[in-house]
């Protein structure tokens, strides 16, 4: 299978959409559909679900499949669809990745298994088995702050050499030397996506393909515009947007993602601000800080709703 066409389409802001719940904590598929439609109309270049922002570890296997299938139908081919299919369980990861292929996803994003802390050789064997179980492209997701293990560049390069459908990586690694070496060792045409908000623009500057940024949940148009400006050669505009978004980026990570993002989306009237335990909304003090920041950005009025509880 040739992956060139997919690689050409997977560019820009791929939004890692949150999983909305209703007041009782049930997955709200109707609101998910509305969110995806809002994203695409706002200029988002691609849609992902059940990644870190989508609380996958709080969903059952069946719920993850429901979210993926609903999202695929909502996207309706308008932009690329890249669901997160990884977990801490190897067999479940393969099952979900095969399901992504069955429903027609453009690619699957597979996280480094969290909690287990595998060795580099074990990571190689895990990702190789997942990649060989499907024909669709794979984007590896490296987020050492969540998984407690870093997928080393040499391990990734080995996987890229041995698995032709591993076409990219989402790097949520703050080590900018590391991400430079990813492109050096994996090839300049390898798709590098930033998962660190303050590195979205810098990664574009070294040849990155785009970002998969939680901030896109709140301001999809602005995050997409940053990428559009860069790809159009308007470096100054891209730089301006990078710095313009910095304060919002910071406040959306004032507590563990996606708590602040869901609080913000609740204030904007986009979702019921609900998470499943052990995650929760930010403290009232932090929610007030989020609210003030949304007001500052012109997203809310001063009289907007008070923090949720």
TrEMBL record:
Where along the chain is the active site annotated?
141, 170
Q: Which reaction does it catalyse?
A: L-aspartate 4-semialdehyde + pyruvate = (2S,4S)-4-hydroxy-2,3,4,5-tetrahydrodipicolinate + H2O + H(+)
Instruction: Provide the E.C. number(s) assigned to this enzyme.
Output: 4.3.3.7
Keyword Transport among UniProt keywords = no
Which subcellular locations apply to this protein?
Answer: Cytoplasm
Residues annotated as site: Part of a proton relay during catalysis: 52, 115
Q: Which GO terms describe its cellular component?
A: cytosol
Q: What Pfam families is this protein classified in? A: DHDPS
Name the domain of life. Answer: Bacteria
Entry binding sites for pyruvate: 53, 212
Which pathway does this chain act in? Amino-acid biosynthesis; L-lysine biosynthesis via DAP pathway; (S)-tetrahydrodipicolinate from L-aspartate: step 3/4
Q: What is its main location?
A: cytoplasm
UniProt keywords (A-Z) are: Amino-acid biosynthesis, Cytoplasm, Diaminopimelate biosynthesis, Lyase, Lysine biosynthesis, Schiff base
UniProt record, GO biological process: diaminopimelate biosynthetic process; lysine biosynthetic process via diaminopimelate
Q: Which CDD domains match?
A: DHDPS
GO terms, molecular function: 4-hydroxy-tetrahydrodipicolinate synthase activity
Enzyme's top EC category: lyase
**Record family assignment:** Belongs to the DapA family.
Q: How does it assemble?
A: Homotetramer; dimer of dimers.
Could you tell me which NCBIfam families the record lists for this protein? dapA (TIGR00674), HpaI-NOT-DapA (TIGR02313)
Function noted in UniProt: Catalyzes the condensation of (S)-aspartate-beta-semialdehyde [(S)-ASA] and pyruvate to 4-hydroxy-tetrahydrodipicolinate (HTPA).
Name used for this protein in its record = 4-hydroxy-tetrahydrodipicolinate synthase
């Amino acid at each position: 299978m040739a992956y060139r066409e997919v690689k050409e389409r997977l560019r820009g802001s791929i939004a890692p959409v949150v999983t909305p719940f209703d007041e009782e904590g049930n997955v709200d598929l109707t609101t998910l559909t509305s969110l995806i439609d809002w994203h695409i109309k706002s200029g988002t270049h691609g849609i992902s679900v059940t990644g870190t922002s989508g609380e996958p570890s709080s969903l059952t296997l069946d719920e993850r499949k429901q979210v993926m299938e609903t999202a695929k139908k909502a996207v309706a081919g308008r932009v690329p669809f890249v669901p997160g299919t990884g977990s801490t369980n190897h067999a479940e990861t393969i099952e979900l990745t095969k399901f992504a292929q069955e429903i027609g996803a453009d690619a699957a994003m597979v996280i480094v298994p969290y909690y287990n802390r595998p060795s580099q050789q074990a990571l190689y064997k895990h990702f190789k088995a997942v990649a060989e179980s499907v024909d669709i492209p794979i984007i590896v997701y490296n987020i050492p702050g969540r998984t407690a293990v870093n997928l080393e560049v040499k391990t990734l390069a080995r996987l890229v050499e041995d698995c032709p459908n591993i076409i990219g990586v989402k790097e949520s690694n703050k080590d900018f030397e590391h991400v430079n070496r990813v492109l050096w060792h994996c090839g300049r045409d390898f798709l590098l996506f930033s998962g660190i908000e303050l590195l979205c623009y810098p990664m574009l500057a070294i040849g990155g393909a785009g970002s998969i940024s939680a901030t896109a949940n709140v301001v999809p148009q602005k995050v997409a515009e940053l990428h559009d400006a860069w790809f159009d050669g308007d470096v100054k505009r891209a730089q301006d947007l990078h710095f313009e978004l910095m304060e919002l980026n910071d406040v959306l990570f004032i507590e563990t993602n996606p708590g602040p993002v869901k609080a913000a989306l609740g204030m904007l009237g986009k979702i019921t601000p609900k998470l499943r335990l052990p995650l929760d909304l930010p403290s009232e003090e932090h929610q007030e800080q989020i609210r003030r920041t949304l007001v500052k950005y012109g997203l809310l009025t001063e009289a907007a709703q008070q923090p949720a509880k």
